[in-house]
Each structure stands twice: as structure tokens, then as C-alpha cells.
Amino acid sequence: MTIPSTSPAIELPEVIQRSNELLAGHQQTIWRRTDRLFAGLLGFEWIAGIILALWRSPTTWSGPAASVHPHVYSATILGALCIVLPIYMAMTRPGFILTRHLIAVSQMLMSGLLIHLGDGRIEMHFHIFGSLAFLAFYRDWRVLVSASGIVAIDHLVRGMFLPQSVYGAFAASNWRTLEHAGWVVFENLFLVASCVQAVREMRGIADHRALLEHNHRDVGRQVQERTQQLNDAQASLMKAARSAGMAEIATSVLHNVGNVLNSVNVSATIVADRLKNSEISTLAKVSELITQNRGDLANYLTHDERGRLVPDFVTQLAVELESEQKMLIGEVNGLAKGIEHIKQIVAAQQNMAKKVTLRTAVDAAELVESALAMQGAASMSQIEIVRNYDKLPRAMLDEHQVLQILINLISNATQAVRETAPGKRQISLSVCRAVTENQTMLRYQVCDNGMGIAAENIGRIFSHGFTTKENGHGFGLHSAANAACEMGGSLTVKSEGINLGAAFTLEVPITFAEESVSCNR
């Protein structure tokens, strides 16, 4: 690989192989297009040579008798012999290396013929330099070597035996041949450098495109793996629910899983949108600019106002692709966290079936922030979050049971404030210690200024199957209330009425980590 990278992926054999395939495909496209271009150019030059011969010396005279000038026969017959095989190869074998070299030889022979038809005039020699520039369209410096060799042989042989046909004089020294060869070498220095630079840039573009395709496939594979893990988790959950005969628990768990899936869906959507709007499309624009200016690429890259921006643009594109890779990896990590929480939900329900609850030391406020993160940035947009967290030591509680309840409450609050005008939507979250006569409780409160709850529905809000949502199922609050009771706590609600918001309060008994360590109960 010609472009160094800090990414280990660019050293992978499949990335290198794909880069080579992309480079070879691009080169084949250029070679085929240029072969056909020269097929037309050679035909045009043949016709132009005939017209030149007819214009300059259509006839020759021997006394009063006139006949066709030999230049006309040379232009017609020799010109046809020079171009017939290359044109045939360009039409039937475009892109072959033999075709390119045959065209290079034919082009130089046509230059020699045109110089002969022009009686060696110095102006006709510029056709050689123009032909070399056109041959640089191939971006293959070896073609220039073949063409230059033919020029050198032609000038050497004709300079010795027919100097008038190449230099317009009856005698010419060998120094003149060396002078013409020197000018050809001088032009080739720039054309060869241009071809090498063009191939290097094509290689760089192929490297970055191959790496980006590899990263896209890798992200897609990870998404599929996470999706399969999610399917496996759901299958395990349904199997556990059926084996325990707890249909109500199964529906509650699925509801909690659905809440977590909202954040998983947001991350998956971001990944899909980013892949759809990838910067890879800009590679085609860079390639188009290089192709449009392939005739004078070195001058374009050094003097043209837009051409000077190409190297910097390629560098910026590499940085952008690396940033895109990091963002996609971050979103995939978010997917993994969501799926891990789903696994914990399944494990919690399995432990509950055994009447075992695992209590661990956690930061009470961090649980609220985790529940917020599960909602995703998109669902929380245009909502003001007010936090009132007491500074508390780490508490011993059932982390995933509490997290399930908080996710449910915050999700409901988020949906409730959607009916409020933008700019006035607010959700207040609080965490504090509540001391009763018998024990210490941890109190969570989720308040919103949304659609509120009618007085007649307050008493039924935690009933199984009851919901005020158009597309609701009535499982979430019911399972949350049951989970709170199983932990020895409670879940209550207050609302002043429709459009006056609601406040849900979760209280669970706890001990703090520095006071004691709780075990299974």
C-alpha cells in the first residue's frame, strides 16, 4: 500500500486485494477509453495526411505529361498500413497492453509520415510532441518509451539516408538527430512524472475506498451479530416465560424490552443513515477532476486554482473517513449496551422466578442518567430536563429492576410532553433519601408538564391492560408497579388533571454501601 494509515484494517489482505481490484478496474476503464480515442484520431490523421498531400503536391510533371505525385501514394497507402492494425486492435481488444503499444508505434509512424509529407518543415515536428502528450492519457509511462524509441529510430535512419524528408535539407549532421532526441527526452521527463503521480493518486483513492468498504461491511456484520443476539435473547425470554407458565410476566418483560429497543433503533437508524450518506461519493468527483485534466495533470495540480486543492482535499477526505469510522463504532457500541441491558432484563425475570433478587451497590443518580441515555437523543430533543439529585452514597438495590421502572416512567413522560408546545416541554427528575419509621427508602420522582391524567383514571392507571394511549397496551405501568412491590417498595402517581402534567414516585427500601452489604433475600 502506498498511503500509510494508523488503521490496522488497511493492512488486511482482503483490503489490499480489494484496493488492487479497484485500481485495476479504473486503469482498464482509462485504457479502453483511450484506445478508442486513438482509433478515431488515427483515422482522422490518415485523412488529414491525404488532404495535405493533395493540397501541397497533387501531381508531378515529366515534360508536358502529368502524373499523381508520390506523396499522394505515400499518404494513402503507407498511412493505411500504419493505422489498420492498431484500429482493429482498439476495436476488438481494447485495454490490452499490446494494443497500447501498437497504437503508440502507429502514432509515431503517422508523425513521421506527416513530417515527410510536409517536406521536413520544423512546424510538422510539433506533431511528435503533441502525440506524446496524447499518449500520456494512458497514464502508463511504458507506452511513452515505445513511442520515443520509434521516433529515435525514424530520425536516425531517415537522417542518414533521406535527410530532406525529415529535416528539409539534403544533408544533416548527427548532432541534429541528437538535438531532436533531446527535446523528446525533455518532454518525457514531465510526462513520465505526470503518469507516475496520476497512478499514485489513483492508488490512494483505491486504498481509501477499499478501507471504507471494509469498514462498512464490518459495521454491517456487527449490526447483524447484535441483531442475532437480540433475537436469541427474545427467544430465551419467550421460552422461559412459556416454561414457567407466566404469560403476564412475559408481556411485561416484552414491554420493557421494547423501551430499550427504542434506543437500539435510534442507533441502528443513525448507522444506516451514515452509511447511506457516506463521503465515498466524493471519490467519484476527485476521479472526474483528474480525468478531465489528464492531458496536463501536472500543470493542473500546480497552477490551476481548483487543482491545487486536490491534494489537500484527498487528505481531508481521509480524515473524514476516519471520523466516520469512529462514529459508526461508537453507535455499534451503543447497540451492544442496549442489548446487554435486554439480557439483564431476561436474567432478572429468571431470577424472579426463583424468588431471588440480586442487590448490588450502585450510584442512584447514575441509574437515572442511564435510563435517559436509553431513550436516545432524538426522542429527547426539544425537551428541557431538570435534574434535582441529592448527593447520596452508593446504595444497595436491584439495579436492573429499578432501571426497568425508570426507563418506563421516563418514556411515558417523554410521550406525554409531546402534546405541549415546543419550547415549553419539561421533565423534572429527582433522587433523594426518604426516612420512614421502620426503614430508609430511596425515592425517585419523574414529573412532567404534559397531557396529565384524568381524575377518574388515577385509580386504574396501574391496572393490567389499562392505557390512555391510542396505541398502548397497558403492560408497562402494571409491570413497573409489580416490580416495585416485589422489591418491598411502591410506585404512586399524582396529577391535577388533563393538561396539568403528572408526577410518578418510586420508593424502594435500601441500605447504603458503607452501612452494610445486603445479600439475597
Quickly describe the structure.
This protein is an alpha+beta fold and 521 residues long. Helix content is 64%, strand content 10%.
Question: How would you characterize the overall build of this protein?
Answer:
With about 525 residues, the protein is an alpha+beta fold. It has three domains: about 160 residues, no CATH class; about 150 residues; about 150 residues, 2-Layer Sandwich (Heat Shock Protein 90), CATH 3.30.565. Helix content is about 65%, strand content about 10%. The longest helix has about 70 residues. The chain starts with 12 loop residues before the first helix and ends in a 9-residue tail after the last strand.
Q: Layout of SSEs?
A:
Elements (H helix, E strand, L loop, with lengths): L12 H44 L2 E4 L2 E4 L1 H23 L4 H21 L8 H10 L5 H21 L1 H5 L6 H71 L2 H30 L4 H12 L4 H7 L5 H45 L6 E3 L1 H12 L8 E6 L5 E3 L1 H18 L9 E10 L4 E9 L6 H4 L17 H11 L3 E5 L7 E8 L1 E2 L9
Parallel strand pairs: 4-6
Antiparallel strand pairs: 1-2, 3-5, 5-10, 6-7, 7-9, 8-9
The portion of residues assigned to helices is 55-70%
Low-confidence residue ranges: 1-9, 244-249, 516-521
Note the gap between the termini: 62 Å
Shape: rod-shaped
Q: Total number of helical segments? A: 15
Which structural class best describes the helix and strand composition?
Answer: alpha+beta
Order of helices and strands, N to C? HEEHHHHHHHHHHEHEEHEEHHEEE
